[in-house]
Structure formats: structure tokens, C-alpha cells
Amino acid sequence: MSPIDMEFLKQNSKIQVYLERADKHLEGIGYTEHGLRHASITAMLSEKILRCLDHPPDDVRLAGVAGFLHDIGNVCGRMNHCQSGAIIAHSLLSEIGMCSEEIVGIMEAIGNHEEDFGQPTSKISAALILADKSDVHRSRVRTRRFISFDIHDRVNYAAEKSDLQISNKKKTISLMIKINTDISQVMEYFEIFLSRMIICRKAAKVLSCEFELIINGNKLL
Ligand SMILES: [Fe+2]
Ligand SMILES: [Fe+2]
Q: CA–CA distance from 103 to each of 37, 95, 191, 206 (Å)?
């Protein structure tokens, strides 16, 4: 059997059901999109970070798997979704034959991906955090109805473009965001995402890099 990667997981109908249901729950409690789109983007960015930093192909592949499954725990509820997600990933990945050495690395990454209690201590975990927190974009906003009074919807809706650039030479990981300031002021981004930027800095350090935040062409971190 070929190694399990993100493309393999995308074809798995059981995983699709879990991700869709998790996203449905978050829609019900008013959160932005956390479904197949967010899973795929996070997986792709997690892979990109380790690939650009010349990490071994197996680590790149496992970062993609962790990225794809990282929010699956929301199916059990938002609180502690990192821990429930790690356990669910263990069960799904065991069932499709992934070896324990690979599963534990993915569990650790998923279990630590949020800024409230998460601690990046491995390369895969660090890549997942940076990838997840980089997915700030208007396409995650489900409806424009709430953007005037919901700050998360407003900031995401204002983000017209976001891109993660990695330089192995300069050892930098740069999140570039274009924010439409007619919709949201840059200050609002910090108001809700400051703790995320702090964990991104920690994660970049694990990868021996500096984290940079560039909004509308201005380097803010
Ligand atoms: Fe999450
Ligand atoms: Fe996420």
C-alpha cells in the first residue's frame, strides 16, 4: 500500500462525512467555514512550509495529513476540539492502516494546534499551527449579514488576499494579508488575532525561522 497522504484522505468518504458534520456544527454556532475547504488549504500550506524548508518528504506528507484532519474534533463540540480531534484521527488512521509511529506525530500536532493551550514541540505541529492561522480570507465567511456586528466575520471578510511565503535562505515565514480597510481596520485584526500571532512566532522558532506579519505591504511583526 502506498503511504497515506492528504490526497488519499480526500478520497475517503468516512472522513468527508466527519469533516462535513464538524463544519455543520460550527455553522450552527456561528463560526466561519471550517470544512473541506479549510482542511484542504491547511493541509496544502502545512506541506508547503516543510517542503520549502527542505524537510524530509515523509514529514511533508504527515504535515499534510495533520492539516487535513486538524479540525475534525469539532464534530464533538468546539471546546477541546484539539483533543477530541487527535483521538478521532487516531481511530480513523489506524483503521486505514497507518503505522503507530506516524499516528502519534499527527495526534500531537492536532492536539496542540490552538493558541489557548497548544504548544508546538515538533516540526509537524509547528507547520500545522502556521498553516491553520494563515487561512484568513473572505471566502470563509458564510454570510455577509453579520459582518457589521461580528468582528470575526468582518475581519475575515475584509481579508481579500492572504499568502504564506517561506524563505529557507532568510529563515523567514511571512504571512501577507491584504485587508480592505473600508470593511475592517487593521487594528481589529490584532484585536482578535494577537494570541494567534504569538503562537505563530513560537511555531516559527521550532522551525528555526522568524515569523513575519505583513498587512497591506506594512511589516507589523
Ligand atoms: Fe481548530
Ligand atoms: Fe483550523
A: 23, 11, 35, 20
Indicate which ligand has the atom closest to the C-alpha of 114: 1
Strand segments, DSSP code E, in the chain are: 159-167, 172-179, 210-215, 218-219
Q: How crowded is the C-beta side of 221, counted as CA atoms within 13 Å?
A: 25
- Which residues are paired to 211 by β-bridges? 173
With 0.85 as the threshold, say if the pTM is over it.
yes
**Amino acid 143: pLDDT:** 82
Distance 39 CA to ligand 2 centre (A): 7
Q: From the CA of 35, how far away is ligand 2's center (Å)?
A: 9
**CATH class label, 6-219:** mainly alpha
Q: What is the pLDDT of residues 63-97, one digit of tens each?
A: 999 999 999 999 999 999 999 999 999 999 999 99
Pairing of strands 218-219, 210-215: antiparallel
Compute the distance from residue 169 Cα to the ligand 1 centre, in Å. Answer: 30
